[in-house]
Amino acid sequence: MTRRRRRSAAGRAVLTVVTAFGVLAGAALAGAAPAGAVPAGTTIAPGVTYRQFDLPAAAGTTHAHLLTVDLGDPRVRVDLLHPGAVAARATVSTMANAARAVAGVNGDFFDITETQHPGVDPTGASVGPAVANGRVLKAAVPDGQRFGPALPPGTDTEDVLGVGTDHRARLDRLTLAGSVTTPAGSLPLKGLNQYALPQNSIGAYTSAWGSASRGRAVCGTDTNRGAGCGAETYEVTVRGGRVVSVAGAPGSGAIPAGTTVLLGREEGARRLRELAVGNAVSVTHRLVSATSRVAYAFALGGFPVLRDGAPLAGLNDTTSAVRTVVGFDDGGRRLLILALDGAVAYRSGLTVAEEAAAMRSLGATDALNLDGGGSSEMVTRGAGAAAVTVRNHPSGGAERPVANGVGVFATG
Asked: Rounded to 5 degrees, what angle do the CA atoms 176, 180, 184 make?
């Protein structure tokens, strides 16, 4: 049975709530929620609830799946879901089960295709910064190298939603700060485990990158992702504070722990060519917060749509799509994670402007848009279950392997 209730407020979207638990990926939604709807939502773990509801929109009614996470509950935390390497992909359910999460959604946009660069394999690596369990995994690619819809004015690839060691969520920007110290002096480090490096720069690759080729990193420009691949490249491998090997082209294969591969393009390559095997080299890198003095336990990239209770100026209000968004209220103590349904009956989705209005209507003061379309997916555990179930219908008909996600963990 479907139950509905309506509420409205000035400047806020009207929600038709039809909460249910037990939707299976691939099952048909005949224009409404399945039987057994529970308007108050379902508690899936201490401090974590799940519900569904309809959202009226300009392109037609869409269907939303919402996780509400109480970050003030000491039994609850969120962290990055990832497949064990930056340059890799896995389905949200696979990552959630491997990490023993009770729920999760897909995360950042990622390097999904390289049709513009014949012979170059997509890496699967995400666009923005990533922090997992307090460990920095990667930094952001240049704005012109990102995948996804156009960025709203005033935003860039360094934008993140993070949860600090104080268990509060924040919107922030994380910028790479690093250097390569050589016998000839210090060189700026402009990349960390990224599928695209800035022009004329040097980037560092660690064991967190994985085994994928680093060839994609020298393709495109800072303003044009589809531009050709650079001809002037150089790699230097550093272990134990010394150069152990050099190469004239980007390599591939797993990078051992304690080893750093430096890759340069254009001027960066010319500077690395000055190094020889045996030279002393040290590499430092960290992500610097624009606003927070609290260290991040978790962070991932996307673009802001709601800040301090107001939608950002210039949000797209014409293109509707299936979307995933994460936001917070109560000073960052409550997390709201929303994924739209990709079933045919609801696939029209929301515009970015409508997405921001929907999050505001749910009480969020701040929100970050994540990857959408065929990537949008929400999973949760059922009562007593050891594995998660996909709760929405992925628009491609099956789960899409993605770069990362938001995982919800609970004890007790």
From this structure: 145
Backbone angles phi, psi at 215, to 5 degrees: -60, -35
State both tokens at 329: 């209220």
Average pLDDT, the chain: 91
Q: Looking at the predicted structure, is the pLDDT value of residue 24 above 50?
A: no
Cβ–Cβ contacts within 10 Å for residue 97, how many? 16
- Token pair of 68, please? 């509400």
pTM as predicted: 0.91
Question: Which of 266, 111, 251, 112 is CA-nearest to residue 195?
Answer: 111
DSSP code per residue over 93-110: HHHHHHHT-SEEEE-S-B
**Terminal alpha carbon distance of the chain:** 32
Rama region for 84: left / alpha / beta (φ>0; ψ in -120 to 50; rest): left
Residue 44 confidence (pLDDT): 94
Amino acid at 368: L
The pLDDT value recorded for residue 40 is: 56
> 325, 322, 296: which is closest to 311 by C-alpha?
325
pLDDT score of 11 more than 60: no
Measured between alpha carbons, how far is 367 from 329 in angstroms, rounded to an integer? 9
Asked if the model's pLDDT at residue 38 lies above 60, the reply is no
| Number of residues that this document lists for the chain | 412
Task: State the average pLDDT over residues 75-93.
Answer: 98
Q: Which of 68, 73, 130 is nearest to 103 (CA)?
A: 68
In one letter, which amino acid is 189? L
33 pLDDT exceeds 50?
Answer: no
**pLDDT of the residue at 41:** 83
Span 347-368, mean pLDDT? 97
Distance between CA atoms of residues 123 and 105, nearest Å: 21
* Placement of tokens 């996470």 in the chain: 69
Q: What residues contact residue 233 under an 8 Å CB cut-off, 6+ apart? A: 218, 248, 249, 250, 263, 264, 265, 269
User: How far, in Å, CA of 319 to CA of 12, rounded?
Assistant: 19
List, in sequence order, every beta strand (DSSP E) within 290-404.
296-301, 303-307, 310-311, 324-329, 334-340, 366-369, 378-381, 388-390
Please report the pLDDT score of residue 14 as a whole number. Answer: 34
| Structure tokens belonging to residue 392 | 């929405």
Closest CA to 250 of 274, 278, 267, 229: 229
Pairing of strands 202-205, 191-192: parallel
pLDDT (0 to 100) of residue 378: 98
Residues 402 and 376: their CA atoms lie apart, in Å, by 10
